[in-house]
């Protein structure tokens, strides 16, 4: 049981070492003691609980592992200076079949197989407790998540340059996953981890032509985390309807479709971006049907073509013949609702190209949504990213003992 201040010395399977920069795993009979002290409880999710810990021993970190951003940024706490901070995730599931059963877990497989990326949370170590038969993942720690950041703003909008930076990092991390044929299936603010590294004077995106207006705001490092529901694109598994939190579910999931892929992550990304701008959820449904109603109330129904906007994009979520048929097979019919102008939901501080980009993510038809690569090439990023060359305010420091 994790509790603040508790010390843990766990005999774990398998033993882990590194040779020539590569992880070497022992067999299902090998053991190695892992020791850590719990500093703070970070949260509890559907798959397990996570705690910020001071890692004591042994030296099992990958070669050249740097101290986490939360220890090297300008806001790092003094009491953390002498510690080796990690996030330890203890999964709820018990593995009576031992290590051989653990190796079949997709979350662990994806963590181990995915190449390192600056916007994907890193896995340091993993082990099965010989006593409790529970699996522990030792992860790169972060200060908090996007939900914490939104709440901390207390209604104060993020600087335009900060929004662009966060968006770019999210798309980069998601694009990395998608390029490797993985999709997340549970993108929401709680799974987008954030650490801050100081302050920066951002050039205003809206006032780009004058080049005079600046906005002081935090510098945020963003990483995608929690791969408990992630899958490979070519998985033959029949997917369940329960994917992610309701507010961020794509329409095909809300209608209990069984065929979906990376495009569902792009819908979730659009919903998260809208929330980052509004500082509140855009589709806060209270039930499955209410969630569909919330989406339709803004994007309109997908049974009609409501024309094109000034960018030449479909007004609202666009037509979706397959969804209409899926809906009919469920004994449900979409009510006829005209879409709202998405631009009226956001402040004039928000660049029209960003609203356009969000609209192109919130398409009913999954085939019509932007891919991660198309998102990175969007005119919004071409307009905003050159304005602010954000410095790296957290110089990398190697863990003591890393080589």
Q: What would CATH call the homologous superfamily of the largest domain?
A: Transferase(Phosphotransferase) domain 1
How many β-strand runs? 13
Distance between the termini: 33 Å
Taken in chain order, the helices and strands follow as: EEEEEHEHHEEEHHEEEEHHHHHHH
Q: With helices defined by DSSP (H or I, 4 residues minimum), what is the helix count?
A: 12
Major pleated sheet:
6 strands, antiparallel, barrel
Overall number of domains? 2
Large-scale geometry: globular
Mean pLDDT figure: 89
Helix content: 25-40%
Classify the beta-strand content into a percent band. 15-25%
CATH architectural designation of the largest domain: Orthogonal Bundle
What is Rg? 22 Å
Strand order of the largest sheet: 1-4-5-6-8-7
Structural class: alpha+beta
What is the CATH domain class of the largest domain?
Mainly Alpha
Model regions low in confidence, pLDDT < 50 over at least 5 residues: none
CATH topology of the largest domain: Transferase(Phosphotransferase), domain 1
């Amino acid at each position: 049981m994790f509790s603040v201040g508790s010390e843990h010395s766990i005999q774990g399977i398998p033993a882990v070492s590194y040779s020539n920069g590569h992880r070497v795993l022992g067999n299902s009979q090998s053991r190695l003691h892992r020791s850590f002290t719990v500093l703070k409880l970070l949260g509890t999710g559907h798959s397990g609980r996570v705690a910020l810990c001071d890692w004591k021993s042994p030296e099992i970190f990958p070669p050249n592992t740097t101290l986490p951003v939360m220890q090297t940024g300008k806001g790092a706490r003094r009491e953390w200076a002498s510690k080796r901070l990690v996030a330890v995730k203890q999964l709820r599931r018990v593995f009576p079949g031992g290590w051989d059963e653990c190796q079949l877990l997709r979350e662990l497989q994806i963590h181990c197989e995915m190449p390192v990326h600056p916007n994907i949370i890193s896995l340091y170590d993993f082990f099965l407790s010989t006593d409790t038969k529970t699996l522990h993942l030792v992860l790169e720690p972060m200060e908090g998540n996007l939900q914490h950041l939104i709440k901390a703003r207390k209604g104060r909008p993020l600087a335009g340059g900060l929004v662009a930076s966060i968006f770019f990092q999210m798309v980069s991390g998601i694009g990395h996953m998608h390029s490797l044929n993985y999709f997340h299936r549970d993108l929401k603010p709680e799974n987008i981890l954030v650490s801050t590294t100081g302050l920066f004077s951002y050039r205003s995106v809206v006032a780009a032509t004058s080049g005079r207006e600046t906005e002081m705001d935090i510098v945020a490092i963003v990483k995608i985390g929690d791969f408990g529901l992630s899958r490979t694109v070519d998985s033959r598994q029949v997917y369940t309807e329960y994917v992610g939190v309701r507010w961020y579910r794509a329409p095909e999931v809300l209608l209990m479709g069984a065929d979906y892929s990376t495009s569902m992550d792009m819908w979730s990304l659009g919903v998260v971006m809208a929330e980052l701008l509004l500082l509140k959820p855009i589709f806060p449904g209270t039930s499955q049907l209410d969630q569909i109603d919330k989406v339709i109330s803004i994007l309109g129904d997908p049974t009609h073509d409501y024309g094109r906007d000034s960018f030449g994009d479909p007004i609202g979520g666009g037509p979706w013949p397959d969804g209409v048929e899926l809906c009919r097979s469920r004994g449900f019919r979409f009510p006829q609702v005209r879409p709202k102008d998405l631009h009226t939901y956001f402040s004039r501080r928000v660049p029209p190209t960003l609203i356009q980009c969000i609209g192109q993510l919130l398409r009913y038809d999954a085939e019509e949504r932007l891919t991660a690569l198309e998102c990175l090439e969007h005119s919004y990023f071409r307009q905003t990213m050159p304005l602010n060359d954000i410095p790296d305010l957290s110089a990398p420091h190697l863990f003591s003992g890393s080589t």
